Amino acid sequence: GENVEQHPSTLSVQEGDSAVIKCTYSDSASNYFPWYKQELGKGPQLIIDIRSNVGEKKDQRIAVTLNKTAKHFSLHITETQPEDSAVYFCAASDPRYGNNRLAFGKGNQVVVIP
Amino acid sequence: NAGVMQNPRHLVRRRGQEARLRCSPMKGHSHVYWYRQLPEEGLKFMVYLQKENIIDESGMPKERFSAEFPKEGPSILRIQQVVRGDSAAYFCASSRMGQTPNYGYTFGSGTRLTVV
Question: What is the average pLDDT across B53-76?
Answer without folding.
Answer: 93
